[in-house]
Amino acid sequence: MDPISSPSEHDVLIVVDVQNDFCPGGALAVPGGGEVATIASRLGSRFANVVLTQDWHPADHKSFASAHEGKAPFEMTAMPYGDQVLWPDHCIQGSHGAEFRLTDATLQKAQIVIRKGFRPEVDSYSAFLENDQTTPTGLAGYMKERGLTRAVFAGLALDFCVGFSAIDAVKLGFEAVVVLDGCRGIAAESIEERLTQMREAGVQIVDAI
Ligand code: VGL
Ligand code: ZN
């Protein structure tokens, strides 16, 4: 069954990190990020199950360049779990930038909000596993318990949180679909890299329209 036009009760729409800081005017603005809310809303109206993720960092989070002396945003650093991009301060817990930029319809439809990136020492792109590749967010258990077997993704950013979420979904035994026109990405190079990795992992990439 086509998950976009007629999702089943086993499908879940996962709306990734559609928050003020990832939209124009925000601290880590994704080009065109503000356009995602409308498409997420339209998609969400067709789904019985909607989950939101929310990037949710403490002010001293180690993924922030400001936490590393002499480092600037978008430089790299080595974390105990591997290489890590350093970001501008963004999505700080309780801040305006961390609030959702979604329609009321989507917010009301959401059944659970998975917050991630709240451990100061570990970043978390994927909605399932933090960047150490071992700490679970709880989403896989939630989906299993609810009989949700296929995850359909829209949101921000395609090359980071959406991409790694979809790849992890497949690794964890779910089907994964990314709605390309329901996503926006940070940079052309990382978008290409992630699209290739997603295709290799067996993620289905579709358009909503
Ligand atoms: C994200 C970078 C840092 C994302 C979150 O939502 O894609 N990217 N934190
Ligand atoms: Zn973040």
Task: Walk me through this protein's architecture.
This protein has 209 residues and is an alpha/beta fold. It has helices at residues 36-44, 104-109, 139-146, 158-171, 188-201; strands spanning 11-16, 50-55, 76-79, 82-85, 112-116, 150-156, 175-184, 204-206. It is built from five helices and eight strands. It has a six-stranded parallel beta sheet. A two-stranded antiparallel ribbon has the order 3-4. A hairpin with a 2-residue loop joins β3 and β4 (82-85). α4 (158-171) packs parallel to α5 (188-201). The longest helix is centred in the C-terminal third of the chain and has 14 residues, at 158-171. It is globular, with a radius of gyration of 16 Å. 46% of the residues are buried. The model has no long low-confidence stretch (mean pLDDT 96). The structure holds pyrazine-2-carboxylic acid (VGL) and zinc ion. Zinc ion binds next to loops. Residues 55, 57, 63, 90-91, 117 line the site of zinc ion (ZN).
Helix and strand layout, with pairings?
Blueprint (H helix, E strand, L loop, with lengths): L10 E6 L19 H9 L5 E6 L20 E4 L2 E4 L18 H6 L2 E5 L22 H8 L3 E7 L1 H14 L3 E10 L3 H14 L2 E3 L3
Parallel strand pairs: 1-2, 1-6, 2-5, 6-7, 7-8
Antiparallel strand pairs: 3-4
The chain binds pyrazine-2-carboxylic acid (VGL) and zinc ion (ZN).
The unique ligands bound to this protein are: pyrazine-2-carboxylic acid, zinc ion
Give the helix proportion (percent range).
10-25%
End-to-end distance, in Å? 16 Å
- The best one-word shape is globular
Residue windows where pLDDT falls under 50 for at least 5 positions:
none
Number of strands: 8
By DSSP (H or I, 4+ residues per run), the number of helices equals 5
Report the biggest beta sheet as strand number plus sense, adding barrel if it closes. 6 strands, parallel
- Helix and strand sequence: EHEEEHEHEHEHE
Task: Specify Rg, calculated over alpha carbons.
Answer: 16 Å
Kindly estimate the percentage of residues that lie in beta strands according to DSSP.
15-25%
Nearest-integer average pLDDT: 96
Structural class based on helices, strands and sheet pairing: alpha/beta
Enumerate the strands of the largest sheet in spatial order, edge to edge or round the barrel. 5-2-1-6-7-8
